[in-house]
Amino acid sequence: MTRLSRDIRRLSLGLLLCAAPIALHAQPLPAPAETVEEVPAPRFVQSENETPWLFENSDIPPDPEWVFGEMDNGLRYATRLNGVPPGQVSIRIRIDAGSLHERDNELGYAHLMEHLLFRESEYLGPNEAIATWQRLGATFGSDTNAETSPTHTVYKLDLPNASVAKVAESLKLLSGMIREPVLSPGNVAAELPIVLAEKRERGGTAQRVGEQVRGTLFAGQRLAKRLPIGTEETLRAATANSLEDFHDRWYRPENTVISVAGDIDPMVSAALIEKWFEGWEGKGAAVPAPDFGDPVAPAGGTGANPVGEVAVIVEPDVPRNFTYAVMRPWRPVVDTIVYNEGLMMDGLAQALINRRLEARARGGGNYLYAQVQQEDVSRSTDATFVSFAPLGDDWEAALADVRGVIADALATPPTDEEIAREVAEFDIGLASAVEQQEVQPGSALADSIVTAVDIRETTAGPETILAVFRGMVDEVTPEAILEHTRALFDGAVVRATYVTPDSADASEAAVRTALAAPVSADGSARLAASSISFDDLPPIGEPGEVVERRPTGLFDIEQVAFDNGVKALLWSTDAEPGRVSVKVRFGNGFESFDAQDGPYIGLGPAALIGSGIGELGQEEIDRLATGRKLGFDLGVDDGSFSFFAQTRRDDLEDQLYLFAAKLAMPSWDSNPVNRAIAASRLSYESFETSPAAVLGRDLEYLLRDRDQRFRTPGPETLSQMTAEGFRETWAPVLEEGPVEVIVFGDFDREAAIGSLAKTFGALDAREPAADADLTAIPAFPEAQEGPRILTHRGDPDQAAAVIAWPTGGGVTNLREGRQIEILTQLFNNRLLDALRERVGASYSPNVGATWPTDVDSGGRILALAQLRPADVPVFFDEANAIAQDLIANPVEADELARVTEPLRQAIERSSTGNLFWLYQIEGATADPRLINLARSVGVDYSRTTPETMQQLAAKYFGSHEGWRLAVLPESVAGGSSGVAQPNAR
């Protein structure tokens, strides 16, 4: 991307954000002064003659865009200029302390410390962090966040519209948080319930299974029993003094790395880091990190891979899953070019096995999926994991199938053709990264430094990675791949877990015996060597004629119409080099189906794409895609279907062919359908495990007033479904309704029109479905007295609550629909504060809004929270109180500005990408009003008045009491929770 084109885009965006054809007024927003003291030159920047601290002992060329520095107190930093998105600066502060650094009586302290730093610190008073970042334009939870892992704690800030003054203020605030948090008894007591609530929300069956898997695979190591969330016992025992001790021990400059990437001079950001962190000194003597331990082979084990710890984990409501790991000790490496060549060879070996495993599954294997993955886990082990899901209860047959494919890879070198296929796939992925490096966001670059430090390696630019790969291609021989494959499965110990709903399935002895049993190599999954070319495929039809070309008036977007009725929106722009986004809208979505079609609708995204085109199945399509950047996602909306992919200029015509061929000559292979049905059957078993799972199964169905098209099919229904039934459901809807093709990105416009003429222009003319043939989307359900109740079989301290109000849809009132987003953000902030104050809920409360544009109704405002069962009535009381207050009283200017400024900044950043505008104008060939509405998108989402918010609250909260749902544990439903008796599903 040239700087000029980026500046033109920013100018155009500014005009759009200022265009306000309705009487809306932005609220004044307090902001730090735009003047800042002159920043002296940084003193600790490493010179060109010095090896950057991240690249010591490495021969990998450092990226010259990075500025590295190491201060006298031991703190290290890396900064660089990046303008994606324009105006944003991303800051990451990594502390080399995670859950593995905790003592036995400190479990959960690293994560609790993360929370406490946001509560109060040297420059932030109690509970000021959220409001302060919002005033700076950052959305809390997305732009401002933190993470705690076993090996580190990272504080993250993506600061929009970042002047030097704002960056200076942000680093000042962050320095106060890191160096001098207020770890008072009052703050600990206030934050502890929030952390415990987060632990409760993460808990349940999945967490319980995860803990048992972790305890088995990492037995004897610190990783086995140190989850970042900690234990209730150690968290409740935490005191201000014990947390102060943890902070003093690990929050030290020599344990800290800061990365900054964004629209600011890197020397300025380096100087600001030095200003606010130079005076920081660790308290007391430095403490070395504990030994994380090694995987230890079982006593008396024999053979190259003795089977160690094994666990059969029985959980009634979870699908079967088998994992075994070949484990080796983790050791620091010297991150050289040769080392990275070895990693790439390992990657090729794994890709080859995984492709064969997928082919075996497609061809009738006894497992739904299987995957091999090498991973360095938390600096604790270098392991190769093998995971699969048996199709039924015969896990031994599935294990034998998987081991047979791996045994073949271990016994016999791959063919040259197989290697060429994987090399081509790697090359296109790496080459695409080079093409798109100009649009790599600063947040990703800042994260790359954090990741490199965490794994004790370096980071490299896309061009360096591609050069290393292409420089080693001649060494990728069948014998070399065989050698690396064998190394991947050579380890000190094998450990395994089998998760099953039935205790009669297996015993630990049976699992151990099956893993140790001899296995025959299965070469049936070796892939055919024959290649397929798009040139060999049949044409879609006679190329169409262009009957109209006209500008839309928005940017340089052009509308093109063909004689068969297909219309296209084309925007050729260099804003995202090397990337082309393609979206095809067609048909009528859910409106095309009847109630009896419901069970088959959800299979579409998996089975329809996997069923192939013409005489080609998924395997043949995969071979067609070798060395190309092609995609195929299917979406089903209320009033339309869509295909979507991101490709590149050279592959655009082939991408268009794939999409058009799916409409013109769909294939109906039964294997993908049967596999999708099996996957649905397995996933259904887990829907009772937690409130969130129950909501995933039933919420949309209930909000659609029990319309059968939106119901998740159960086992009885799934057992009756067939491939022929799938075809009867989907074949008609692929043939009806208008087609709109949107192509935005880095491509040649005239060549694209020629490709469209040969593909979509060559389709038979399609008649729009008659209104009589469409099934209307159901109305919003009527509110009832008391909430509807659903139950789950998970932990008894988990519940969820939902309240929803209907809004609208369509294009006519779309600007009002956008304004509702501001209202919901106000609601969200208030609900978060209320629940934290009353019940100690974590950050789970969420309020959102939808407003579909492809139908004229169906929008909603929905508030959801995960809570303790006893707190469900509190949620409903607070949500109702907030709704009524928004009706009764206009919001204050500062509260409104803390919502509109982050929204404005989010839109300004998002709108520098092509996808933002694609989503704004999709459907415009059918309804041109969307073009004009795109001009006001910035205003609509970010400029309003207290009076407008009050009017919207009255219109939508005042006209409907709110539909309510509670998901409670079976043991307490209808009991002491204070909510009504259960209603039948």
UniProtKB/TrEMBL annotation:
Keywords: Hydrolase, Metalloprotease, Protease, Signal
Residues annotated as domain Peptidase M16 C-terminal: 238-424, 739-899
Entry annotated with the keyword Hydrolase: yes
Keyword Signal: yes
Molecular functions (GO terms): metal ion binding; metallopeptidase activity
Domain Peptidase M16 N-terminal: 88-224
Signal sequence, start to end: 1-26
Transmembrane intervals: none
Membership in a protein family: Belongs to the peptidase M16 family.
Protein name: Insulinase family protein
UniProt source species: Parapontixanthobacter aurantiacus
